[in-house]
């Protein structure tokens, strides 16, 4: 079967997100984007229509192989209609940010329809302050966080008045192959994959003879680094409960210049600062619920991008995982930051992310028919981590949609089993945005966790000696919006850097 960008079989990692999905744990990622002004719906749809040929996967369905003899394939949807994917929602007056969060939470509930391409957008109109919101949902089997940001760069524009895209002639789309053809294709692909694995094993053996390092040794080292976590079940937080189908959201944002100031003063990476703020907020949350935080650590599962430079622009998933124990009971924020920095640097030296990726590759050798049973089995008890936190570097320049400036961009990540809170973080236009997704059965007070994030950041900034008046100005009074406490003005952006300072 052709493995080009138009028609392709799922990788084992991509397919796993379909297999593991269940109604109370849908596996789509998303975001809430807020634009200045009233975005015309039809112009917005036409803009996407003029660019969607650049991302063919968004016009394709996930089609299973007969008897799950192979992983699903991406096939052109013969009934593709953009209006089935881009819909309108209108808020009742007055159209507050609280209403936006409530509406968005409802939109994030439930699984995407597998009978059409696995993405949806909702243009939310009637938001006070002459603003428009865009709620996006994309299945995790289609994109990971990094390729999702690259997709954002395709759909949006770097100018408020971009040149119209050149006309494109679209070839006729082939129909979905019949079941017997898909069955034969799957058998052929399975044989090809086994030959590829054998070739990779031979290459790995030669490399290990030349360098003294093997993939197996790297994987074993990764297991050794994480066996302590495996052997010691995580101390459960109040939100580590079975999931329901309901969702609740909260958002926050911070100045990227202030984060750079914290790094300059205390060291560490942007991600270390993120984990420090999150751990401080979780410590406050645990104390609010009557939990002792003396020597208490929270265990955070952090996806790591392992996409190579030559894989940029490809959809699908190229992620590994790190398990990080963060000292939620450490009340000195600078000490907390330095402890987390030491932990993450040790994990990097041990090459744990690469080892975890290799282990995932080994699991990918399990026949698809067996992997596909994952979603049918009762979910195991979560003894691994308290929550997932995904940090995705984003564009650091202002973006536009049909002439309307993107003011804010809050990421939303799916909830893992018995992790009733999830945290997504991304950077955009000199700000760092936090999006909290929660199951109200597990964390009905997620809004308090958002408040604790704000408090933990201010505490860290103060302890690091970062004076807001001393920070370099990235532009004039920037046009911003803040969900929950709106601030708005107008400005032109300066310092057009395309990616976050994530080092």
List keywords for this structure.
503 residues; alpha+beta; Chloramphenicol Acetyltransferase; six-stranded mixed sheet; 12 helices; 14 strands; 34% helix; disordered C terminus
Explained architecture:
This protein is α+β, with helices and mostly antiparallel strands. It has a single domain, classed as Nonribosomal peptide synthetase, condensation domain (Chloramphenicol Acetyltransferase), CATH 3.30.559.30. It is 34% helix and 19% strand. A six-stranded mixed beta sheet has the order 4-5-6-1-12-11, with helices on both faces. A six-stranded mixed beta sheet has the order 7-14-13-10-8-9, with helices on both faces. A hairpin with a 2-residue loop joins strand 13 and strand 14. Helix 6 packs across helix 10, helix 8 packs across helix 9 and helix 8 crosses helix 12. The two termini are 40 Å apart. The N terminus and C terminus are likely disordered.
Helix-strand blueprint:
Blueprint: H1 12-19, E1 28-36, H2 41-49, E2 60-63, E3 73-76, E4 86-90, H3 97-108, E5 119-127, E6 131-139, H4 145-155, H5 179-211, H6 215-231, E7 248-255, H7 256-266, H8 270-288, E8 298-305, E9 319-326, H9 333-349, H10 352-363, H11 368-371, E10 387-392, E11 400-401, E12 404-412, E13 421-428, E14 431-438, H12 446-463
Parallel strand pairs: 4-5, 8-10, 10-13
Antiparallel strand pairs: 1-6, 1-12, 2-3, 5-6, 7-14, 8-9, 11-12, 13-14
């Amino acid at each position: 079967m052709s493995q080009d960008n138009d028609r392709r079989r799922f990788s084992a990692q991509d397919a796993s997100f379909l297999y593991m999905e269940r109604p109370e744990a849908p596996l789509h990622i998303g975001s809430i984007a807020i634009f200045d002004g009233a975005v015309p719906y039809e112009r917005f749809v036409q803009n996407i229509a003029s660019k969607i040929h650049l991302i063919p996967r968004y016009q394709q369905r996930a089609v299973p192989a007969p008897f799950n003899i192979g992983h699903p394939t991406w096939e052109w949807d013969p009934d593709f209609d953009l209006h089935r994917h881009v819909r309108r929602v209108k808020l009742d007056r007055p159209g507050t940010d609280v209403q936006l969060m409530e509406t968005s939470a409802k939109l994030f509930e439930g699984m995407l329809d597998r009978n059409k391409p696995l993405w949806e957008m909702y243009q939310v109109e009637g938001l006070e302050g002459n603003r428009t919101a865009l709620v996006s949902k994309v299945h995790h089997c289609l994109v990971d966080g990094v390729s999702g940001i690259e997709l954002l760069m395709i759909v949006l524009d770097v100018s408020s008045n971009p040149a119209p895209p050149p006309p494109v002639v679209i070839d006729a789309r082939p129909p979905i192959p019949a079941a017997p053809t898909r069955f034969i294709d799957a058998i052929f692909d399975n044989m090809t994959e086994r030959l590829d694995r054998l070739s990779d094993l031979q290459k790995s053996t030669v490399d290990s003879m030349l360098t003294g390092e093997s993939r197996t040794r790297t994987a074993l080292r990764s297991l050794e680094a994480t066996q302590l976590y495996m052997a010691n079940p995580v101390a459960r937080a109040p939100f580590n409960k079975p999931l329901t189908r309901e969702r609740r959201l909260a958002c926050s944002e911070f100045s990227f210049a202030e984060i750079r100031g914290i790094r300059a003063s205390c060291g560490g990476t942007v991600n270390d600062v993120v984990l420090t703020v999150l751990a401080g907020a979780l410590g406050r949350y645990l104390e609010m619920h009557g939990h002792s935080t003396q020597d208490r650590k929270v265990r955070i599962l952090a996806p790591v991008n392992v996409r190579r430079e030559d894989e940029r622009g490809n959809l699908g998933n190229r992620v590994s995982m790190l398990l990080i124990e963060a000292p939620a009971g450490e009340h000195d924020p600078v000490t907390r930051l330095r402890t987390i920095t030491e932990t993450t640097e040790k994990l990097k030296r041990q090459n744990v992310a690469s080892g975890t990726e290799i282990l995932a590759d080994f699991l990918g050798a399990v026949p698809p028919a067996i992997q596909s049973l994952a979603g049918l089995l009762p979910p195991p008890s979560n003894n691994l981590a308290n929550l997932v936190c995904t940090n995705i570097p984003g564009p650091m320049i202002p973006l536009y949609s049909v002439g309307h400036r993107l003011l804010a961009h809050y990421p939303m990540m799916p909830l893992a089993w018995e992790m009733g809170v999830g945290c997504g973080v991304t950077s955009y236009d000199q700000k760092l945005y936090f999006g909290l997704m929660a199951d109200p059965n597990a964390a009905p007070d997620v809004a308090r966790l958002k408040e604790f994030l704000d408090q933990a950041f201010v505490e860290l900034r103060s302890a690091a000696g970062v004076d807001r008046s001393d920070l370099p100005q990235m532009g004039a009074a920037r046009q911003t919006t803040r969900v929950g406490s709106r601030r708005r003005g107008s400005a032109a952006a300066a310092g057009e850097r395309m990616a976050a300072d994530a080092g």
